[in-house]
């Protein structure tokens, strides 16, 4: 078990002038469950491979509990990793698979046996120990991969690289719950790479959102939802994502297209400090239909209303932009026009994609 | 209620005709020869299993069979491990890999009788590079006079000619192993030997089975190279089964015994392939669940 510190860590693949991973500093606590979330090619697997030691970063340092492990080979790092596709040793039984990392480290056979039995118990593999590993289903194989990581007593962190990709949806859910249980039971640090936001948000205490080689926000699922620090987080998290509207500051109000929206003076002062074009961000969940003539509301034209079962999704045209609004299950609309009120505490402002207020 | 539609036979007919004309009819001709004594175009006598008994008792055949088994065993024992080692040593990618593959594949492109001719000259004691060099180093090497030298020369020639095939197959098999296996092995702290034993070798099982079967069949039927190199000599030292068969059938026109022996030869190969195949299939993992 260990805390993980990334110190000015960045990586460029040889022969490439672009960073696959922008230099950054981060601290991950011991025993935490972290999810690395981002679209394909955002550098999350690169970061994972650097932590596990499969890749040596081109700059910066990796520290486990304050110990520099940047150039230490994988096998000396006490890291376990579960890959996208189950990796098992075909010719071995489940028992031998689980015992493999211990036998490679020359542990006495009696200890191997008790460790394997213990881990098999946790993973519900006890009844399968004598079977050939190759005959098992994908989720059992993935459990064995996980088990090979957990079986070592000294494991600092378990890394998961999209481990549920090949698992059936209904089993995915079970396996994820089992993983959570193991996390609580063994108090391991877990780092889980995924591009599926539901997976990340349900699994992790802290979600690290990555975009174009950099970490754009690290926070609890609630932080990411309610206060996205970056426009990417806003539209990547949530379904549908955050509405983003270009706007201008005009004295004590904000101009959105042709319309004006009053804002508190303190906020106006804060925004006045910001240079460059502003973007207003508000989630569909935090917009409501206002009464005619209500203050601080925007006027928009209804494009369509879709029924999502438990809620309704309204799409409106506001100037040159479209806006999504999530309404209650029984919401009804009268007419083609609508007044929208934005919840002030959930209305964010961004400049150069970063949150400024 | 099942319906029977005889039109289906029409669909099978092309295959039946092809297989019949390419395999079954020629085979039956051989069977026909093997049970008759053909004295002239219109004179033939049915002899039953007489030719089989005769052939089975032929000491020359026993010797040829012994040599053949020894030769094939040596070929497999050398070429398969050597091919795997070569494949492991080859660069995995880039121009070095392409270059190495082309160089490695060269012997495979040379026709058998040319291979024989090349080695015939290469091994000559007076002007051949290998032969003269060996003699110069003080070895008494003469493949036309010494049985052991001849036998070893045929073996080395075959290794030179066909090991690349195994190496190419193994190379392709190695490239097909996903990177995650090697990464997992590193994380599990596996040694280089363990990676080979538990990842590479099991994953190569399929291609090695094909390589093994091909090399076994080919080496068991070897004809051209020793024929060109040594003509089966000195004495009978390098007379393998197919050359013995040719001597019988074409040289002495003993069509009956030759046909009987052909069938035995065919059955030996079939049986050996079946044994190899089943052994390797069962040695490896099966993908079927056991319950």
Tag the structure with descriptive keywords:
heterodimer, A: 357 residues, alpha+beta, Rossmann fold, OB fold (Dihydrolipoamide Acetyltransferase, E2P), 2 domains, six-stranded mixed sheet, six-stranded antiparallel sheet, 9 helices, 21 strands, 26% helix, elongated, B: 291 residues, mainly alpha, MetI-like fold, two-stranded antiparallel ribbon, 12 helices, 2 strands, disordered C terminus
3D architecture notes:
The complex is a heterodimer of chains A (357) and B (291). Chain A has 2 domains: 4-235, P-loop containing nucleotide triphosphate hydrolases (Rossmann fold); 240-355, Nucleic acid-binding proteins (OB fold (Dihydrolipoamide Acetyltransferase, E2P)). Chain A contains 9 helices and 21 strands. Chain A has helices at 44-52, 94-104, 109-122, 138-150, 169-186, 197-203, 221-226, 231-236, 265-272; strands spanning 4-11, 21-28, 33-37, 59-64, 67-68, 79-82, 157-161, 190-194, 206-211, 214-219, 243-250, 253-256, 259-262, 278-282, 287-289, 297-307, 312-318, 321-327, 337-342, 348-351, 354-355. In chain A, helix 2 (94-104) crosses helix 3 (109-122) and helix 2 runs parallel beside helix 4. The mean pLDDT of chain A is 86. Chain B contains 12 helices and 2 strands; from the N terminus they run αββααααααααααα. Chain B is mostly helical. Helix content of chain B is 72%, strand content 3%. In chain B, helix 3 packs across helix 7. The radius of gyration of chain B is 24 Å and the shape is flat. In chain B, strand 1 and strand 2 form a beta hairpin. Classes of the chains: A alpha+beta (357), B mainly alpha (291). Chain A binds chain B through residues 52, 54, 73-75, 79-81, 83-85, 87, 89-92, 100-101, 104-105, 131-137, 145, 148-149, and chain B through 178, 180-181, 183-184, 186-191, 194, 198-199, 202-203, 284-290.
